[in-house]
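Sequence in, structure out. Go.
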Amino acid sequence: MSNEAPVNLTVKERILLHLHPYSLSIGAGLDGDWPVETTQQGIAEAVSISVSHAPRTLTALKRDKLLQEDKNYVTGKNRKLKTYILTSQGIKRARKLMDKVAQIEIKVIHSENEKTITVSEAWAEIGTSNTLKALVDGECRIEGTGSTTPKKRELIGDIPDTDDFVDRKLELEIIQKWISEGTPIMVVTGNRGNGTSTLVGHYCKNQKDCDVFWHDLISSPTLKAIQGFSSLSFKSDIKGTLQGFSLMKHTLFVFDGYHNVKEEIASFFKELVNYIEACDNEDNKPLDIKFIVIMRHDTPFYNRFYNNSHIGRVVKELEVKELSLQAFHELFSKELSKEDVKQVHGLTKGKPALISAFNNGDTETMVKYGLSREETRLLMFIRDHGRIK
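Output:
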């Protein structure tokens, strides 16, 4: 393969492609300073132009309503700088460009090794910046300690603490298989305290397949909050929000805390199911995104957003049951006798949340999860005076 560029991308197009992943993650909510890659200097370096050339092109993109400019604190800088992200229209234009160049082959050279991969593969393996260089030059040479291993995935949102995670090997295998070849939506169900959020959180923190956007429906129970994930400008209707989701690539959306939700939230998820069905019926290109909804077993019937006809086609269900006695034993902060472990397992019904409360002496949480005062006092007696193995 020659070093001639395989596709003639304009500077504007290269900027759109460069800012696409940053626009998606920032649009979903940014905790901290903005990345330097969204500044004029960062953009210029990424798309191989001079810094003096960048303002003119950025102004043109703003004029076309593809870009929005602001001033923010930037990582490593002590003052606010101009930063840039794509508008919802700019995200759509970038997605079309990504589809256009996805199957073009480029050469990747690292140390003594070289290989030819498609642009679609390069996004995941060498990142956006290196892929753009390869599109301009026809090849990408990664120097020094660089590698072509998959890039680190983004984790956006308040993913719960998973330090106490144990067992669940089968459930993790089911989720991984679903990510690779399953339906667009997975509903993870379980009784309160069974560790559904911890299971999904553990999977998200350890997977390398996709970016993760985690949304807590308990702390942010409105449609407007959900719409913040789909694009930079809020949509006034559900259809617009769903179209915003369709612009994403290699992305997993997790909605935690689905139980007694507002009507607008239940309607959104019903429309999501209908939208996916319509895409399938029209033989459209399937969405390159996945959704996990973490739902309690006792969710009211009127709040459920799918029915039996959707299972296997649009929705896959995964039931998370109580921990086995053997796995349950691993959660104790101190060694108890076998008899005491069995008694605690029976009283807590194998719920990880209750064992965490047991370890911490948190009687309020025990009562909150349905234990009586008598059961709570017995658990505290075992914790403090149980027979040490």
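Check: Confidence is low (pLDDT under 50) at residues 1-5, 144-151, 230-235. The two ends are 69 Å apart (CA to CA).
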